[in-house]
Structures are given as C-alpha cells and as structure tokens.
Amino acid sequence: MPGSEPLGPNVIAFTGVGDPAAYPVAEFGRTLRQVLVREGAAALSYGPDPAGDESLRRTITQLLASQGISTSPESVLVTSGSQQALALVCQVLVRPGDTVLVEEPTYDLALRLLRAAGAQLIGIPVDTHGLRVDVLERLLEQHRPRLLYVVPNFQNPTGATLSGPRRHALLATARAHGVPVFEDDFAGDLRYSGRATPAIKSLDDGGHVLYAGTFSKLLMPGLRVGYLVVDGPIRRRLVETKQVTDLGTSLLLQRALDRFVTVGRYQANLRRTTRLYRERRDTLRSALTEHLPDARFALPAGGLFCWVALPAGVRSDALVRAARDRGVDVAPGSRFFLDPTHGAGHVRLNFAVQPPERITTGVRRLAAATNSLR
To answer: Which of 109, 361, 74 has its CA nearest to residue 221?
Structure first.
C-alpha cells in the first residue's frame, strides 16, 4: 500500500497497483514534450478553472459516453486521483458522527479516509455478486446514513462485480431513502472476460450518484489525475472545496492527458494492458490451483485483485510474516474490514504487478509459507 516500507528486489510483491514496466512512459513523455512545445509557459501556470481543463472535461464525457454514461463537461470535476474525489465529498457531505455505509470488505484507504472525516462506518456484506442489496434497506432504515460508498466493478479487495439487477435495486433503494451513492469505478476499463455491466451512474436520472474514475490505475499511479461526475448544487461546493484545497490539478498533466487520449494512445494502451493483465490473471489462477489447491478463490472478470480464502487454520497475519521470510509479499485480509479479525482467513493478491514467471514462483513461495503454518 502507499507509504509501506520499500521491498527488496528479490521479494515478489502481490501488492501495489500495476507493473511499472507496462507504463507508457515513452509515449506519455512525447506527449508532454508536444504540449510544452505548443503551449510553452502557459501550460505551467494555474488553470483558469479549478474544476479542470475544459478540453479534458469534454474528452472525459466522450469516454464516459462509450460506457453508457451521458453527462456534460459542466458536471465533471477533475481531481488529483479518485482518492481526492472521495476526500472532497467527505469534506462537503460528511460531518463527524455521520454514518456512512460501506461494503465489507472494501478498499482500505477509503476506510481510513472516512474515519479521518469522523464518520461512523457500517458494513454491508459482499458476496460473489457484489454488495448484498437485500441487507441494504434494513441498514438504511436503521442508521439513516449520510452516504453509501460502493465499488461495483472488480471490487477492491474481492474482485466481485455488482450484478445488473442489484445495481438497479441499489439505486432505487438509496434514492427512496434520499441517500447519495459514491460510485468508485477505479478499474472499470480493465475487463478480461464477460460483458460490461452498466454503471450505476448510467441508471441515475436524478443526481443521486457521484461517480469517480481515474486514469492512474491504467496509465501511471503517479499521474494522479481522476475525475468526479456530479450533478446539482453540490458540484459548486465541491469545486470551491477543490480550489481551496490545492488550487487545481496540474494544468500540464491535464493538457498532456487530454492529448494522449484524443490521439488514440489511451485506447491503444488500454488494449495492450488488458491483454497483459488477462494473461497474468490466468497465470495466477493456474498457479493457485496447482500449488494451493485447498485455498478458495473466485476468478475476477477484470481489475487488479484476486481474493483468496486461506486453508482452514491459517491466519493472514501469520502468513504475511511467513511469506515475507520466503520472499513474497501479500496484503492481509484484516486490512479491508471494519473489524480486522473478520479478515483473518483471507489475503488479497494483485496479479497485475508481476510477469507470469514471477507469479508462478511467488505462489510457490506462498504455498511453502502456508504449509509451514499448518
């Protein structure tokens, strides 16, 4: 996770985001130079609009239209990654003591951010079809939350995708209770199998869904450019909060990203990355099946993560230590639960970071560590 101590070169890490070797460094570097040659010092100034560069916002709406989300540049707020999108929403909507509903398990840094805002967090269980909508209505009535946070595509950490019927039911239920939905679509473009399911935002005709996306997971994590699609009066408050927080996302990066997307390099990189990560996902499946046959997992249809239920009696905290001793790093399941003990029987593996041969070697090491704890 961000901020963890660096790992040695011989450690095979199933943590992190993507493979630096797959980042389009040369292509994006050329794009940056082209922007600087064309615009000069103007590209290094503050942008005129804290909501983001107008051309990039227009390009984002075109990308979203291809995913069934109809919106306008006036509804898009460019952010410093999707993490800032959630941070801004917390600043505007959430007050200390407010209740926020989250999937359980869910993205650990979202939990930390919401807790830092003083929110009282209530978990909703997740199964192979995503958030349990049958549990949602009771919790909405019982707790009257301020916000519902959900990762419907290739959920972090489980890899589950919220089914189409559940998306419709989630939106209808949240709307009936007047609870806004924060839809975190951090890796929705990275699909390896099956058909895409419409975003919850694409079903929303009343401004109930705040939709966050990012370019960081597909391109380069350090790019730190994301966006928030939001309608209604709250957008103005979010833009004002963004302005006083950081004055605006880097104009140079926005202009370069806009050009990178509009000349087709983004789509080409998406196709290349999807092929690469699909192969790595399939390699992980084969390695787990061969070397950890009594572990249970569901093959994710996309994204970055595989959620592994450990053999009976093996705890993730002990496994993380034993695995580190054998040169492999994994994320303990405890990190993703409100009560860390509920994740003691799971680990999260990021299959995108390592090439196939290191994935196989890493799973062998993980199996050895697991067997040492039986």
So the answer is: 109
